[in-house]
Amino acid sequence: MTDAIFPDLKDASVFITGGGAGIGAYLTEGFLRQGAKVAFVQRSDASAFADEMAEKTGNRPLFLQCDVTDVPLLRQRIAEAAEAHGPVTVLVNNAANDKRHKTLEVDEDFYDWSQSINLKSYFFACQAVIPGMQAAGGGSIINFSSISYMMGNAGYPIYTASNSGINGMTRSLAREFGPDRIRVNALAPGWVLTDKQLEMWATDEGLAAHMDRMCLKEHLKPDDIVGPVLFLASHVSHAMTGQAMVVDGGVVVTG
Fold first, then answer.
1. Which secondary-structure segment (H or E) carries 162?
2. Domain-embedded: residue 253
3. What's 81's domain CATH number?
4. What region does 70 belong to: left with phi over 0, alpha with psi -120 to 50, or beta?
5. Which of 36, 131, 171, 251 is the most exposed, having the fewest neighbouring CB atoms within 10 Å of its CB?
6. Pairing state of beta strands 37-42 and 13-17?
7. Phi and psi of 146, rounded to 5°?
8. Catalytic residue among 26, 122, 149, 159
């Protein structure tokens, strides 16, 4: 966990999708350690995780169970978070599903399901928090993307299309709501070795091939993503908006 302290995040109202597992769990802990008021949604029951965080950090997060594909419920959960902690001024759209699929085998139901998680939920979460940010005088939205679309990876074309779409949406929202002092940035991690990745996708051969493409010869851990997200959430990055920050150990080169 980062040792950096961002004083302006203390008491900030933060909302994280998928904040009870994987990278999201580390983000929740990172914001709690900054003294932020954190609400998060998770499809599965994360009550035990919330108890663990309260014990570890002395700062209890508000867990609100929600499947992000249920847009009316997602809106309701954001409203409940705002009622508990004040208007959400930091939104982290982190929930995603990179289930592998083959183009010629995809049907409309799978397509719609994948897009509903990986892009649609992001848009409607942004839509739900923006009025509160306008009233509060500003805010920061961080939309998780991925380097997978930059690499042209095969095996999950709907997911990579969503990642690319997130960048386009991020830039348009940054332009539209910049006058309200709302910053909107994307964060594109490389291959972060969460428990899920290690269990489902990581092979010795795949890890070795990925390492060959990395400038920094160390695989990414969830901890590596926390600091960059806190930076984008904080006023320290007040002049950054409409950008895509890549955190991947040097696999892809942007610019």
1. helix 157-177
2. no
3. 3.40.50.720
4. beta
5. 131
6. parallel
7. -170, 155
8. 159
* Backbone phi, psi, residue 185, to 5°: -130, 155
pLDDT digits 0-9 by tens, 236-249: 999 999 999 999 88
Q: 147-181, pLDDT tens digit by residue?
A: 988 888 889 999 999 999 999 999 999 999 999 99
Domains contained in the chain, number: 1
The alpha carbon of residue 101 and the mean position of all alpha carbons in its chain are separated, in whole angstroms, by 22
Mean pLDDT, the chain, rounded, equals: 94
User: Which residues constitute the domain of residue 105?
Assistant: 7-192+222-246
Distance CA 78, CA 118 (A): 18
For residue 236 the two structure tokens come to 């320290």
pLDDT per position as a tens digit, 58-96: 999 999 999 999 999 999 999 999 999 999 999 999 999
Whether residue 148 is contained in a domain is answered as yes
> Which has the minimum average pLDDT: 73-82, 112-121, 183-192?
183-192
Position 1 in a domain: no
Residue 170 lies in a domain: yes
Average pLDDT over residues 229-238: 98
Give the residue from 118, 123, 244 showing the smallest Cα distance to 185: 244
Specify the residue for token string 């926390």: 226
Q: Identify whether 159 is a catalytic site residue.
A: yes
Rounded CA separation 214/19 (Å): 27
